[in-house]
């Protein structure tokens, strides 16, 4: 079947309106990740599923024709150039680093890292409505449950920063070392496993303030032990920051754990990590009142 007979140039945008957000179907996520990552070396992680997705869509639209991989691939390339260029929060044009966005929610981390000229190359979030919002904000549908090996198999190599605002869970480490294996069965274990396999240059983890004293401080101690001793990261003491100090109209305290791979030689000896509130665009009171009403 030739490209001409399906009029790739005239594909109706609606045909590729990706509204499939069902858990377990990774093809829509792969398709959107492919479209947004075609020139930064990671598209190979998404291509096979993306072609399959386009093939399925075209076969449904043109039932009388046999859609070959070649036709689907051509349509995919066409769609890259036809993809939505009017996103509310587009990726930087000349990114300076790559990051992944785990437990992505609606993309708070992504927004901040994009503002710092980062390019998001993988995202995971399992909540249906968060996925929908994320897609509208950034054009990408997050992959689903990060505890699944299949989801992890899409994570590309060679990204610089791993971001994760993972839910806090206790570890039963009584009488144990509090190392990597002892965290098995928790979401932190999945984060640690990805760090172990991909070895990003830096990690940026966030949690509720209560993590500091959770299980008499043992949970945080285990997390720091795994990151420092088992995974080889330089981790300064975590900091608790309040959103209201950074121009956000919320009294919301969170703990931030930042780390750098030890071989990079990053240390903060004698220096504190300073979070520049000027990096965050302040929203005016009127904006917050309008949005809240
Ligand atoms: C504290 S929120 C993170 C919010 C995010 N930083 C933001 O800016 O919106 C944690 C998120 O993890 C998601 N989550 C929890 N378990 C998950 C899993 N196994 N796989 C993928 N996402 C998960 C939840 O749905 C929730 O949106």
Q: Topology of this protein?
A:
Blueprint: H1 3-6, H2 27-36, H3 47-61, H4 69-82, E1 97-102, H5 108-115, E2 118-123, H6 128-138, H7 149-153, E3 161-164, H8 187-198, E4 202-208, H9 218-230, E5 233-234, E6 239-242, E7 253-261, H10 285-292
Parallel strand pairs: 1-2, 1-3, 3-4
Antiparallel strand pairs: 4-7, 5-7, 6-7
Helix pairs in contact: 2-3, 3-4
Bound molecules: S-adenosylmethionine (SAM).
Summarize the structure.
The protein has helices spanning about 5, 25-35, 45-60, 70-80, 110-115, 130-140, 150-155, 185-200, 220-230, 285-290; strands at about 95-100, 120-125, 160-165, 200-210, 235, 240, 255-260. The chain is of the alpha/beta class. Strands 1, 2, 3, 4, 5, 6 and 7 form a 7-stranded mixed beta sheet that branches.
């Amino acid at each position: 079947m030739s490209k001409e007979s399906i009029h790739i140039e005239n594909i109706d945008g609606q045909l590729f309106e990706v509204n499939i957000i069902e858990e377990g179907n990774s093809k829509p996520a792969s398709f959107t990740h492919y479209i947004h990552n075609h020139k930064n070396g990671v598209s190979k992680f998404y291509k096979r599923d993306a072609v399959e997705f386009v093939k399925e869509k075209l076969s449904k639209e043109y039932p009388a024709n046999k859609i070959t991989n070649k036709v689907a691939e051509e349509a995919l390339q066409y769609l890259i150039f036809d993809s939505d260029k009017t996103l509310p929060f587009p990726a930087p044009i000349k990114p300076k680093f790559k990051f992944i966005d785990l437990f992505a929610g609606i993309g708070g981390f992504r927004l901040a890292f994009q503002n710092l000229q980062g390019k998001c190359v993988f995202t995971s979030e399992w909540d249906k409505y968060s996925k929908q919002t994320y897609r509208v904000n950034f054009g990408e549908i997050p992959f689903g449950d990060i505890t699944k090996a299949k989801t992890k198999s899409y994570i590309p190599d060679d990204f610089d920063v791993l971001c994760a605002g993972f839910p806090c869970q206790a570890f039963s480490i009584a009488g144990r070392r509090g190392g990597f294996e002892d965290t098995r069965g928790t979401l932190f274990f999945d984060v640690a496993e990805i760090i172990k396999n991909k070895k990003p240059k830096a990690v940026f983890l966030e949690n509720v303030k209560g993590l500091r004293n959770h299980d008499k401080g043992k949970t945080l101690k285990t997390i720091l032990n795994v990151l420092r001793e088992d995974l080889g990261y330089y981790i300064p003491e975590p900091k608790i920051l309040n959103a209201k100090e950074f121009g956000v109209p919320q009294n919301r305290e969170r703990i931030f754990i930042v780390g750098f791979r030890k071989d990079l030689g990053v240390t903060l000896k004698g220096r504190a990590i300073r979070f520049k509130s000027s990096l965050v665009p302040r929203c005016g009171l009127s904006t917050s009142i309008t949005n809240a009403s």
